[in-house]
Design a protein that fits this description.
By secondary structure, the protein is mostly helical. It has eight helices and four strands, in the order H-H-H-H-E-E-H-H-E-E-H-H.
């Protein structure tokens, strides 16, 4: 459903798109300022009313740079999390560069830091070209995306590591028994060094949780093991009937 004011975007609230709705809240009027139009679209053969730069909404959108939408989303969704120079689209484009392909996505290298020329990168999708996926395919895609985003490994590398471990936990040597909320058996978790990000192996849910609780500290783990050993009931010899 198009905006009742500009007719060019999806409705956000009160029959208005996001831009018109925000303009009305901030300015108290839906009238756009500093816009000079001739009245009709300047594209030959189009007699629709002009929206901006003497173009109708349709041709105006087509004339926009492909990254204009990404620029606007970052500014609206992450206020204060980008350089002041990004107030101008040209500066934003100079920092991020052109999109390598239509399916690439702009992501921060360090999600805890603001956007900037040194903290953005174009990320290639795990499986480009799959716009329509079944629930099973979507699950595999999300798993692949998680492995690449968090651990920088592919599903094939995960499978190779799992095979090298014999399909069992690298710590206890057991198989995974923990299930997710939908009842599906969980995959072994990827265990990595939190300081170097080096992958150490694949662990079952219990071992992964236990090591995390001990903050990856071998001293604490040895102390806990010594505690258990010290308080384990000792075996006592029971005298037999022969009096020995």
């Amino acid at each position: 459903m198009p905006c009742s004011n500009c007719g060019r975007a999806k409705v956000l609230a009160r029959g208005l798109c996001r831009r018109c709705y925000q303009r009305g809240r901030l300015d108290g009027s839906l009238e756009r300022r500093n816009v000079h139009n001739s009245g009709t679209c300047s594209v030959e053969g189009c007699d629709k009313p002009s929206f901006a730069k003497n173009l109708c909404p349709h041709h105006y959108e087509k004339a926009q740079h492909p990254l204009n939408h990404s620029w606007r989303l970052i500014r609206s969704r992450h206020p204060g999390q980008f350089p002041p120079s990004w107030a101008k689209f040209e500066a934003f484009l100079a920092d991020v560069g052109e999109r390598p392909s239509p399916s690439h996505q702009l992501r921060r290298i360090n999600a805890t830091q603001p956007y900037g020329a040194s903290n953005v990168r174009w990320v290639e999708p795990v499986r480009p070209g799959q716009d329509h996926m079944s629930p099973e395919q979507r699950s595999v895609y999300q798993r692949e995306w998680h492995l690449q985003r968090k651990f920088k490994i592919t599903g094939e590398q995960y499978a190779a590591l799992l095979k090298a471990q014999g399909g069992v936990c690298a710590s206890c040597g057991g198989v995974e028994t923990h299930r997710s909320k939908n009842g599906k058996l969980k995959d072994l978790a990827v265990d990595h060094d939190h300081e170097t990000n080096e992958i150490r192996g694949l662990l079952c849910f219990n071992c992964n949780q236990a090591i995390g609780r001990f903050q990856d500290d071998p001293v604490l783990m040895r102390a806990a093991a010594a505690y258990i050993e010290a308080r384990r009931p000792k075996l006592r010899l029971v005298s037999g009937g022969d009096g020995s």
